[in-house]
Structures are given as structure tokens and as C-alpha cells.
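so i finally got all the pieces together for this one. its four components total, 396 residues if u count the protein bits. some of the lines might not be protein, just check the labels. i wanna see the whole assembly predicted at once instead of chain by chain like last time, that was a mess tbh
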Amino acid sequence: MAEPRARKDAARNREAVLAAADALFSRRASPEDVTMAEVAAAAGVGKGTLFRAFGDRAGLLRALYEARLEPLRAAIESGPPPLGPATPPRERVPALLDAALCFKLDNRSLAMALEESGGTSPYRTEHYARWHAMLRDLLERIPGLGDGDFPAHALLAATRADLVEHLAGEGRAPRERLRERLARYVERFLDSGAPVER
Amino acid sequence: MAEPRARKDAARNREAVLAAADALFSRRASPEDVTMAEVAAAAGVGKGTLFRAFGDRAGLLRALYEARLEPLRAAIESGPPPLGPATPPRERVPALLDAALCFKLDNRSLAMALEESGGTSPYRTEHYARWHAMLRDLLERIPGLGDGDFPAHALLAATRADLVEHLAGEGRAPRERLRERLARYVERFLDSGAPVER
DNA sequence: GAGAATACGGACCGAGGGTCCGCTTTTCAA
DNA sequence: TTGAAAAGCGGACCCTCGGTCCGTATTCTC
């Protein structure tokens, strides 16, 4: 369990790789054509080092993703409203989905690489489980909506990386327009079933 | 433009490949581990033939998918209600989405292979464009719902192959339960915004 | 400062998608 | 019917890429 603490050259190289990969994925259009050898070269490191540090391609992607996700995660777990835990579910759900969308917009190629690129299903990751569980719980706390499990999946599916890419890529729809459209969609769903107000 | 008509051995081989691939993809758990060489071998054909007939892996997948989709497509374009064109939008939308879900359930590995496996975005395919356009138009014909473009994407996203696989795979949720959950979700969306009746 | 532990890196491997080209089959016009 | 050009065949071959291996270099510990 306890990590025996990394040697300092190992730590340095790990950071170098992370930085290099980060840069490469931002620069390149398609995540497919960033090769592991390239990442290693860009980081000034051998392939062996890269693979020892991250296990395999998926591991590198996951580490990168997790790193970029960190601030958002913090904001959700202990930040101020509307993302933080003090927000009532009815407002927090749209806020979370908006945040997810923005994250995908800001990290398009990386998100694509992780969610789509072969082999590993995006639904089997730990962070998807977190998002889904949180959303499900919030939904079930909103009166009038019943079971939140499927809706949570369905709403998250509306923010999937390749859909976002499809809608935002090539200068199709500007960021704000997309956010608005998603917001309207979510709102419509939340308003249904519970004609509480008005 | 005009296809110069295929030679008969070419036609025969094309069918053989299609059949072999169909069988292989049904048999195998993950689409990833059906190799092109394998397909060729199973069809009793050389790799060259396979690639000449379908261009590349994605082409083969597309052709297979299109073939399996054909009956459904016919039912939608000219069949009886609730899928056919005579159905009023309010009932046709749920019917279409249910049909999409069932199709994914019945063709899990193939759908996974096509939608997910690297390179080509599932959103750039011609058949996605058809589904989306149809759904969008229907939605916009339902009073009270405004722009149907994004909702059409979002609703279709709820039937994506890997999500379906995630929910149905490993004997998690039985077919009927999934259909019901999707139906409820769609219904909730359609009921909102337009408190027409009641 | 010595020895053990750990990490380095790039040569190497295997798999799989895709191509090439000499040979066979089909087609079609005479 | 026939013969030659067009179309197709197939599997050896190539190349890229993820991943491994191992002799060498660096770091840690005492």
C-alpha cells in the first residue's frame, strides 16, 4: 500500500513526461497520432522510463487526465456554490454538467484520447464512477424525479468528448452557445415531472 | 459515379467476407480481437481481396453495420407505426429511440467496434446524420419543444453502444429493464416544457 | 565510500493494419 | 470460339507502434 517513496530522478522524469505529454496532446489535432515514442523523446527520456512510470498508454492518459481534473474536483468537493457541496441539488446538477462540458471543451484532445481510444471503456474508469454516483445522488434528492441512475448516465452522455468535439470542432458552435444548449436541455429535463413551482 | 458493375467472383467474395465477419464479430466478446487476417482466413480469401473490397477496417465495419441496419431502416422509412412515417412525432420519437436501443443490444460487439474503435468519430458517419436529422425534425414538430438539434444529439447519446454495453453487459440489467429506463427518460423529456394536456 | 537498490534508455520484439505484384479468372469483341 | 485486355486474387512483405529486456548509470543507505 504505502508507496516506498520515489527516487528523485524518477520523480523528475515523471514530471517531465507529464509536461511533455500535456504539451503534445494540446498541440496535436488527433490524439491518435501522438505516439509513446514521441512523448518519450519530447520528455528527453527513454521509452523504458516512460512505461515504467505509467504502465501503459492508458495509464499515462489517465494520469494526465486526473491531473487536469484536479482543480475541478477540488471545486466540487469543497468549493463554493454553485459547484461546491453547499449548493442545493436543483442548482448543483446543471452546474456540474456545465462544468463537465467546459472541461471537455478545454481539454478536447486529451478527453478524446481517454474516452475513445481503443481498448478501455470510458465507463469503467474510477472518475466516471465518481461523477455518475454524485449526479445520481443529487438527482434522487430532487423531488419528483424517481430513480436517478439511468438519467445520470444519460445526462453525462450528453457531454461526451466526441460529441462535444463534433459540435464544437471546426469552429461549428462557439463555447457559449453550446453551454446554453446543454443548459436548456438539462433544465427541460429537471423541470419535468415536478411542476413544483409555477 | 456509376459503378461499372462487379465481376462475379468479386461479388461472391464480398458476400463471403461479409458473412464471415458477421459470424466472427458475433462470436467474439471484444471487437478489438477480431483481426483482418482472421476475417480473410475465415472467408477463405486473401487479405488483398478483403482490403480491395472494403478499403480498410472501418470500411468493413461500416458495410456490416449498414447491412444489419437495413431492416430497421426499411421499417422506419416505409413501415407501419409506431416506427413508420405515419406515426405522429410524439409517439414516433420514443419508438425510434427504443428501436435504436434494441439494435445496439442485438448488435453489441459490432456497434462497439464501429462507434468506438479508434480513428473515425461515430458522429461523422452518414447513418448518424440520418438518425439525427430525423430525430431533430420530429422533435421540432412537437409543440412546446424549441430547437431540436441538441436534444436529438443528447437523446441519441443515451443509446450509445458502450453505454448500453456497460449497462447490459455482464448480465447487469436485463433487456426489458433497460428499455423501460430509457423510455421513462425520454418520456420525461418529452413531457416537459409542454404542459399541453392535463 | 562501498554495496545494494533502483532507475535509465534504447535495441529489440510481436501483432496487426495495409500494400504490392506476379499469377488467375472473367469478360467481351471479333 | 477464342484470345487478349481488364479485373481480381492472395499471401508474402512492410511498417508503425505499443510494450519488454537488460547491461549500464544513478541514488540511496550505512
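Chain A touches chain B through 35 residues (CB under 8 Å).
The two ends of chain A are 55 Å apart (CA to CA).
anyway lmk what u think
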